[in-house]
Structures are given as C-alpha cells and as structure tokens.
Fold this protein.
Amino acid sequence: MKIIIQGGRVLDPATGLNEPADILIEEGRIVDIRKSGSGQTRPDEIGLQRIDAAGKLVFPGLIDLHTHVREPGFEYKETIRTATEAAAAGGFTTICAMPNSLPVNDNQSVTRFILNRAKAEGLVQVLPIGAITKSSKGEELAEIEELKEAGCVAITDDGNPVAKSSMMRLAMEYAKTFGLPVIDHCEDPLLSEGGVMNEGVVSTEMGLPGIPPASEEVMVSRNLILAQETGARLHLAHISTAGSVHLIREAKARGVKVTAETCPHYFSLTEEAVRGYNTNAKMNPPLRTQKDLEAIRAGLSDGTIDIIATDHAPHAREEKEREFSNAPFGIVGLETALCLTLMLVEDGILTLEQAISKLTIEPAKFLGIKKGQIKVGMDADLVVFDPAEWWVVDPAEFRSKSRNTPFAGWKLKGRVLMTLVKGVPVFTRTPTSLEKREA
C-alpha cells in the first residue's frame, strides 16, 4: 500500500527538518520527503491513499522506555493489547515492557511470550526489558546473555531496587560484556521503608510516613560510582529530586556513561497533589516539592535529563480505592505524556524540537534502534498532531484498561489525530482525515 501524508509541517529533531513537506510511504517505509505545495500530481502519487495533514504537525512516532504492560500475570490491570492501544492513542509507536510481570521476565521463555503476544495482539512495537536478578529479588543474577539473545534490549529490576552494591557491580560488568544498558530504580529500601509519599511538611500534616529524597539520591550516587568504575552504560529511571539532578550533572561532566529519564508527573505536579489522600497521586518515587520540580525542569532544559518516559503503571480501580497507605504506587501515562511534555514548551523550558527529541531520537539512541526520525529508508512510524486543539482529560475515554491518573479534568493543548506504525494507521481520532481517492 502506498500512502502520502500531505501538507503538514514535518518536524524531526534528529535531522533538523522543520518545514511543510509531504511524506511518501511504500511497503511500510518512507520512500520520499518532498516540499509541499507543488500543486501537481506525480506519477508515483496516482492511486495512493492520502492523509491530509494541512495545519497539523507530523513528527516521528514516540518511544517510551518505561511501560508496565502487566502481561503476563496481571491482565486484570492491563494487557499487551490494551497497553499498545493506549500507546497508539498517545502517539507512541514503540514501548519498552518492564520485567515485573508474573512470572518476572528473567528468562527466555517469558521474553518470547511477550514478543509473541505483541506480534499477535500489539498495535505498536513492544521491546522487552529483562530482569537484572532472578525474580527481581536481588539475590542471584539472571541469565543476561540469554535474555539478550531472546530479544531484551536492556536489564532492570524496576520496582525493586538492586540493594546490594556487589550485585549491581556484577550486573554492570556482565551487561557491559553483552552490550546491554543497565536501568535502575534508584531507591534505598531501608531509607524508604514504610513510606508512602514524600517526606516533608505535607506528609507530617497528613500523618503519613514519608520517603526522603535521600532514598533516591544515595542510590543515584552509588550507581554513578559503579558505572564509572565498570564503564557500563547506566540509565537512571524516573528521576524526581533536585539532588539527583545535581549528581547526574556532575557525573556527566566527568565522563560517566549515564543517561537519565524523568516522567511528566515530576515536572507537572508536586506533593500538594496528594492532599485529600488522593491515591491517584501516589507513586514511587513520590511527587516531591516545588524546588524539586523546578530542578527537574532545569535538568531537562540543560540536557542533564536526556529522556522523558511515562512509567505507565496501570492498577485496577478497586486497588486505588483502598486506604492511602494500602493503595499501590503508580499512575497511567501513555495517553497524557505528550501533551504534558508540550506544556514545557508553552512555559519556555524547552523548544518544541527539544521536547519531541526527548520522546523520540533520544530514547532511540539509548536503545540503539533505527527509530525516532523521519528519513528515507526508515520505518514510517509517524504521528499526525493538531497543536491547536484543546481537550479535557477524561479517564473514561482512555484506551488503557486502567484509569488511575492524577490529571483527570486537566485541560491540555494539542491532540494526536493519527498514529502510523510501519505506514499502517493504528490509531485515528478523526476517521474523515483519512480518505482514499484516485489522484
């Protein structure tokens, strides 16, 4: 099938393209990028499917490094099918599946199950991330080489910090040998034990046990030291504190091979969102202070934080409706991440190119995959986006199986109109925008 996306402003931070252009797609790949407005039909445009993107933005499909698809084992929260539907609705064409399923993705059979399910049910590409340790218990190293051979693109025990420094050092050494990056959930379990929100004035007023910033920062510091010693590629997940940003900035200056991500909730919300015992604002790491939020924004602006990820963590409604201390950590994020990120553009923190870069080419470079850019010969993973449309977040309209978001009722600017994976529209918000006609 041939498709042409016409009249849109094509924005690709990887190549520097930012101008009106038409994109010709054939057999799932981009075969030509040409200036818009010639007014003449070329021979290669006859009989193809046309997507009218006039007045819209067209940019590379987004890549999420941090998605909890919940399958296998927790299908009542989310499935690969529903996670990829949510991803497509949010403009994501590639997502990375965290290993904390049941069973944990610590062996080839689970990795292959995820890949097979994604091939059969998924709307977007799913890349598995394997566990660092068996069952993510931190006691025995997983078979890292086998995980890579089966298709894992990185290793992490996300949701469970690797508490033993000796184990993390060994993991880094093995991962370096096999060319895999190590992703860590930075948390000292003894410092955060029993905590349910940020430790500070708000937690004291609410009578809730807190998680201190030091819980994250101690492990960030340890991991940076080990990465410098081993030469391994380290990626720090969901950074939330000012101290962590400072540590990462210093480590990069001295040449440590480290990248870092944060999530939209850490630059959009503070601990104040927890007031009223709002379990939809309960996450780990927790929402921090205004000072931390400003430091996260500064870290995004100066490049200390390379990537924006969702940490999409769906939970069933009955789980989140428990007493605050007993409710699980986590929120959904695939369907709101892009527009929340673009608020940083409105606020002058990032340029539009920088914002899209942190959701496309930067995660692609980290993963070492040929994605995240608009270039002849590349897969046609693309998003058609209306930058002017306002909408109100209504969880009832989510494609995700779960509804646990603190952003319900927020008015956001910009809307994904269409998401294409290898040239196939996998999500269309306005069916009339896609029509087939003879030229």
